[in-house]
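User: Just a sanity check before I run the rest of the batch. Below are the structure tokens for the first item. I only need the designed sequence back.
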């Protein structure tokens, strides 16, 4: 699901709200989560999950094409851990599975 699909779905479910208002609400929520993570704060949405920031130390990586050693700077990356209710709902759902591709078809 994309952000625009989320906005369209919420607008359809709540016809008393204008599409522009739904877009503002969704944008504000995402902006607040982003701002909190950039400050190093943890964002917890009960029943859904928690967003945190993990710090990765500098290291020496390898160029996969040449095998040459390359320095990789330290960085911070966003991390999401699903909550119990979300995990249970996902595990209870039986989505249609696409057949696995064989190695020769890839």
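Assistant: Here's the designed sequence for the first item:
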């Amino acid at each position: 699901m994309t952000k625009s699909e989320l906005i369209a779905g919420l607008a359809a479910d709540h016809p008393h709200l204008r599409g522009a208002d739904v877009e503002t609400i969704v944008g504000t929520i995402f902006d607040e989560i982003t701002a909190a993570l950039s400050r190093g704060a943890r964002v917890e949405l009960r029943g859904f999950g928690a967003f945190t920031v993990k710090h990765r130390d500098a290291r020496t990586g390898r160029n996969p094409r040449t095998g040459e050693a390359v320095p990789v700077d330290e960085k911070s990356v966003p991390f999401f851990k699903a909550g119990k209710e979300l995990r249970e709902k996902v595990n209870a759902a039986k989505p249609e599975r696409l057949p696995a591709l064989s190695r020769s078809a890839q």
